[in-house]
């Protein structure tokens, strides 16, 4: 952007948030002393924390999805990731290993399904299978990997949330966001159906693909979830972060928008977000 171009305050807010939250992730990783005999712990927890940041930054960079159609799908994944991370942090090494081994088992299961499909349909999947098996063998030989067809934690998400002190988060966010993720009736009835205007048709509902305005409250929620995951990480592993908080910086931006608009702090107009 040239020096003469006007500053886009929303884009400036997004860019600052993405930079700061990535700095927070990097800083925490650098402060966590690695023990090479416990790689599953570092890789499992580090990967989950990075996944949380990725979900937030990808949502942040796409204001067109800050709406009830798509944002809840990402936010539900973020809540799921947070609960998984928080539960693992209660007993990091064995639970991280359990998490990693379950994932490897799912990869093995997919490879077997892929082989069977290739043979049945006459499709050449040898290169894909080789790549997937090579990736797996780097961590644990395929023939030694067990496949678990149940839940990786041997309990449901609600029980995990209860054990790690996140039951309110589960009840107030995971459940409603699941409605969007699974396209349940109480989601699509509100957002993908409208009433017919004819009394002769009993005002039945008809399908609609409605364009909805962007709402920065979804960005705020994503940032709050990341900040909560950072807090769980710091508390469990005695990490002290002294870098600027991305969540706090975002909050200041949104407060400024709220004062300018004389409305809710998270109310950013769709014109600003386009």
Q: DSSP strand (E) fraction?
A: under 5%
Q: Order of strands across the biggest sheet?
A: 1-2
Question: Helix- and strand-based class?
Answer: mainly alpha
- Give Rg in angstroms: 22 Å
Distance N terminus to C terminus? 17 Å
Quick one: biggest sheet?
A: 2 strands, antiparallel
Protein described:
Helices cover 64% and strands 2% of the residues. The protein has 274 residues and is mostly helical. It folds into two domains: 7-90 and 213-274, no CATH class; 93-156. Strands 1-2 form a two-stranded antiparallel ribbon. α2 (39-60) packs antiparallel against α3, α3 (71-89) packs across α6 and α3 (71-89) packs antiparallel against α7 (167-181). The longest helix is centred in the middle third of the chain and has 30 residues, at 92-121. The protein is globular and about 65 Å long. The two termini are 17 Å apart. The relative contact order is 0.16. Residues 262-274 have low confidence and may be disordered.
Sequence-ordered SSE layout with sheet pairings:
Blueprint: H1 9-31, H2 39-60, H3 71-89, H4 92-121, H5 126-137, H6 157-163, H7 167-181, H8 185-191, E1 193-195, E2 205-207, H9 217-237, H10 246-261, H11 270-273
Antiparallel strand pairs: 1-2
């Amino acid at each position: 952007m040239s020096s003469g171009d006007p500053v886009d305050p929303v884009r400036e807010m997004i860019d600052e948030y993405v930079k700061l939250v990535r700095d927070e992730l990097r800083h925490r990783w650098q402060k966590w002393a690695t023990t090479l005999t416990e790689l599953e712990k570092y890789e499992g927890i580090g990967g989950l924390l990075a996944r949380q940041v990725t979900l937030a930054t990808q949502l942040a960079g796409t204001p067109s999805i800050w709406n009830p159609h798509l944002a809840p799908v990402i936010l539900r994944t973020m809540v799921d990731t947070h609960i998984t991370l928080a539960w693992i942090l209660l007993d990091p090494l064995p639970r991280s290993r359990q998490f990693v081994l379950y994932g490897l088992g799912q990869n093995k299961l997919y490879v077997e399904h892929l082989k069977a499909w290739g043979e049945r349909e006459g499709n050449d999947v040898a290169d894909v299978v080789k790549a997937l098996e090579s990736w797996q063998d780097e961590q644990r030989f395929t023939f030694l990997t067990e496949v678990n067809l149940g839940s990786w934690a041997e309990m449901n998400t609600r029980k995990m949330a209860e054990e790690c002190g996140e039951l309110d988060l589960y009840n107030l966010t995971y459940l409603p966001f699941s409605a969007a993720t699974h396209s349940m009736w109480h989601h699509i009835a509100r957002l993908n159906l409208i009433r017919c205007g004819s009394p002769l048709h009993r005002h039945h509902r008809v399908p609609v693909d409605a364009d909805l305005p962007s709402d920065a409250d979804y960005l705020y929620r994503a940032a709050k979830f990341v900040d909560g995951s950072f807090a769980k990480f710091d508390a469990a592993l005695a990490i002290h972060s002294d870098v600027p908080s991305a969540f706090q910086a975002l909050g200041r931006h949104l407060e400024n928008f709220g004062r300018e608009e004389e409305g809710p702090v998270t109310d950013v107009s769709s014109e600003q977000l386009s």
